[in-house]
Amino acid sequence: MVQRSLQLLIFIAFTLTSFAQKLTAVEIYAINRPGVVMVKTVFSANVYVNKMKMDNKRFNQLLDSIQGLDINGAVFTAEQKLDIVLKEMNNNPNRFFKATLDYIKQEQEITSTGTGFFITADGYVATNCHLIDLGNAFIRRQFILTSFQSITEDNIKALEGSWATRFTEQQRSLLYTTYASVYSRLFSMVLNDLKKEVFVVYRSDKENMEPFSEKKQARIVVKGSPMPGKDIAVLKIDGDSSLPVLKIADEQLPEVGEQLYVFGYPGPATNNDFVSAESAIEPTLTTGIVSAIKKSVEGWPVIQMDASINHGSSGGPVCNDKGEVIGLTTFGSTVNSGGLAAGLNFAIPVTILNEYLDTANINPEIGLAAQSYAEGVAFFDREYYHKALKKFGVVKRLNKYYPGLESYIDRCEKNILKGQDKEAALFRYDLLGFSLLLVLIVLLYTFFKKRKQRAG
Known about the structure:
- Among the domains are: about 45-110 and about 135-190, no CATH class; about 370-415, no CATH class.
- The strands form 2 sheets. It has a 6-stranded antiparallel barrel with strand order 1-2-3-6-5-4. Strands 7-8-9-12-11-10 form a 6-stranded antiparallel β-barrel.
- A hairpin with a 5-residue loop joins strand 10 and strand 11.
- By secondary structure, the chain is α+β, with helices and mostly antiparallel strands.
- The longest helix has about 35 residues, at about 420-455.
- The chain contains 13 helices and 12 strands.
């Protein structure tokens, strides 16, 4: 009985201290992954562009001059003649193309994708401001570029149809250059009806363990400004009250050399042509250490780290070895080529995030579902499957679509059937120990009784 009481005390102490202990990377991913979300900002607009027409008179003159080359004894293949036509059009685009008074209307959409994470069970999300607050000049440039690519592709297809040919990649590239020159000199592009919508995309699981994505429109609760400003934004989605939540660490800055775990949706992995679209909602986990604590140009601290990030990782949680969020991935270091320098990345500490949470009167806290799930994962990893099942049962009553829940329940039940539960093994050990103790007592009683009888 003493041993059984001791085991009970150990379990209580384990439950109370499990989140203050260091966790493995596997545990950190398992516990925090459900609360990591994808943030999408969708800009839509109507782009009006002047229609273009070709000067047929000058184009026919060009064709006649090429035909004249054959008369003079030069022999050109059809492809060589086409190359000559395209090069001449590229050299003198204003000679062959003219703007009209008619406009083409292009409905365009641009999507900016990044990362965020739930900070409350009822749908508050922390992320970076620059994901939802792109500058007007950048937006206009992106819309014009997208429209140009679409219109140019249509023009090239029209030329292929009218000329009954198929352009090579080199010829298509030359035509793109030609049209870029024409549009930049002769054509105007007008943006109308610009709209912005922000969405939070997160994973849920069906009871058959099949994952699916939830996409909900979000409203902006409070925000700072993109770097060099305090690049923080807090969003809110409605309709849920038991969402997965990440625990935010206290405001103390981490020490240089501490281990870090970074979640995000880096573009090269999320948008990889060889990775299925269904798995796009699975965040990437990278690891590293705190390389330095530095100051931004405006004087507040930033965390330098060597964990790998890329475009799309912005706004993702940076966690310590207890699984607590100590910052948000925000910016990297660029090299001369314009790309990101590997291993020289920065995060905004939670001290800055807390400023905005205080302003909006938001209290980040772990909900019962997230707390029970984390405790269940901790019990599972220590092979206490019955105790894990009880915790997962609490989660299921609160949120039956909690990511990863059904998989853990299934594995718990299978391991219990295999007799692998440590608690059951301890109970069997206790029962055996009690039986041996009882036998020993009986033997001692018999021994002393016989000895007493002999002495009498």
